[in-house]
Amino acid sequence: MPATLPPSRLRRGMAALTALPLLALTACGYGSQAKDDTPAQKVAAGTEKVDGLDSVKIGYFGNLTHATALVGVQKGFFQKSLGATRAKYQIFNAGPSEIEALTSGSVDIGWIGPSPAINGYTKSDGKSLRIIGGSASGGVRLVVNPKKIASLKDLKGKKIATPQLGNTQDVAFLNWIADQGWKVDALSGKGDVSVVRTDNKITPDAYKSGSIDGAWVPEPTASKLVAEGGKVLFDESTLWPDNKFVITNIIVSQTFLKEHPKAVEAVLTASVETNKWINAHPDEAKAAANKQLEADSGKALPTNVLDPAWKSIQITDDPLASTLNTEAQHAVKAGLLKSPKLDGIYDLTLLNKVLKAAGENTVGDAGLGAD
């Protein structure tokens, strides 16, 4: 931040950076407790506890980009793999709150986006978590008002929403803006394009009111905007090699990983089985994910939102480690993160063990694995 800024602006900027606990400004309270008394969550008679644990606490978001968790819960894959150990769930609205829950022990394992994982790891000096698996790629699109924006060059001077300052989509959009040669102050969002940080829940209303001209957002928000008359200008996957980039990872507390590796392996086994089932039964999986969204939030997605949103997401066991490193560098470029030390952020040992046992190809950590 330039030293020539007025003292009041400098103080505000430093306060904003201090408030960025995990590359995002808002850290909501811990998520709501998911129901665990559904038929799919019943503990099978005659099964044994894994690692002697009464329960394993699993966190995830109520987003389609967390489809592995949604389907795994709904179809009972996690509970089946954990035997007599109860699978308990918490649903989160923001990455920072899930990281806090993991750090405090309120959650053992979680599905989460790359930016919170990077920042949870760096903020703890590499002591809080490990990324132990992949879950999803893609599912992020730039949707605009076609009456105001007909091409990418028309974005200049317009108001475009992202979910949070410093979240995964915010970083991606700031990086894309810089690649166009345009200037935007990362903290305020002011510049050649106005970046308006808006909670995904209210972005569709902001679009309808005209207070924003478009949004760079994940699913299902992108498809909700399309249902309101928005136009997809492009899919973020087109910016990445092989059209793949990490949108959701699986993380675990390092303490839990060390003390209960069999429980971690059981959850990863369920994740791999869930992903295989999703890819083999896409329509059934889509319905199961939507059913779990309804159970968690009280509201299912309508077909005109669910169908296009589901198509834009790729389910994968591969954490796509090289793209996480690239995303971290984008945050550094935007001035939202100091050069992070990501060595050791991955431990894919148990995942690769599970993949081998399932006859699947193993995955790599891009040189960022734990010793």
From TrEMBL:
<dbReference type="GO" id="GO:0042626">
    <property type="term" value="F:ATPase-coupled transmembrane transporter activity"/>
</dbReference>
<keyword id="KW-0732">Signal</keyword>
<protein>
    <submittedName>
        <fullName>Sulfate ABC transporter substrate-binding protein</fullName>
    </submittedName>
</protein>
<dbReference type="InterPro" id="IPR044527">
    <property type="entry name" value="NrtA/CpmA_ABC-bd_dom"/>
</dbReference>
<keyword id="KW-0813">Transport</keyword>
<dbReference type="GO" id="GO:0042597">
    <property type="term" value="C:periplasmic space"/>
</dbReference>
<feature type="signal peptide">
    <location>
        <begin position="1"/>
        <end position="34"/>
    </location>
</feature>
<keyword id="KW-1003">Cell membrane</keyword>
<comment type="similarity">
    <text>Belongs to the bacterial solute-binding protein SsuA/TauA family.</text>
</comment>
<dbReference type="Pfam" id="PF13379">
    <property type="entry name" value="NMT1_2"/>
</dbReference>
<dbReference type="GO" id="GO:0005886">
    <property type="term" value="C:plasma membrane"/>
</dbReference>
<dbReference type="InterPro" id="IPR010067">
    <property type="entry name" value="ABC_SsuA_sub-bd"/>
</dbReference>
<keyword id="KW-0472">Membrane</keyword>
<keyword id="KW-0997">Cell inner membrane</keyword>
